[in-house]
Amino acid sequence: MALKVPHTDVLLTLMGAPHESDLITTALRLSQSFLDQGATVQVWACGYATMLTQQGLGETKPRNLAEWSTEYPSMATLVRELLGSHPGRFHWYACRFCSDDRGAVAHLPEVPVRAPAKFAEHVAAADKTLFLGVM
Question: If we measure between CA atoms, which residue out of 133, 109, 106, 117 comes closest to residue 45?
């Protein structure tokens, strides 16, 4: 059965390496801000951003040597929490080509993997589209 892309107020497209800048922090903060204002949001992860929802990341990040006793949630955990706390209002998708090219084949079950040709459907389903990262 074909996936129907839900209408959203905003589509955030993540392009480029996620740990090279504040790209992901910005995307999460924008998503949360839009959601807090009652908007609906979808995220399309492309390039190395597809690595962010890998099941292998686990629940927490590796320990920080400066704060050994503090645990920080992994990006996969943060995405899962946003999806769980905003059902029907927050959606995260991963580009199949970019995922396959990087070996990112074990996404969270809540994250659909879509062919790049389907990206146009996501743009059409959103009132506004923002590109974050390398173009």
Answer: 133
The torsion of the CA quartet 19, 8, 39, 22, rounded to 10 degrees, works out to 10
Query: Which H or E run contains 43?
Result: strand 41-45
Strands 41-45 and 8-15: parallel
Q: Tell me: the pLDDT tens digits for 68-119?
A: 888 888 889 999 999 999 999 999 999 999 999 998 889 999 999 999 999 9
pLDDT band of residue 34 (cuts 50, 70, 90) is very high
Read off the pTM: 0.89
Integer Cα distance of 124 and 120 in angstroms: 6
Give, in degrees to the nearest 5, the angle at Cα 85 between 83 and 87.
Answer: 60
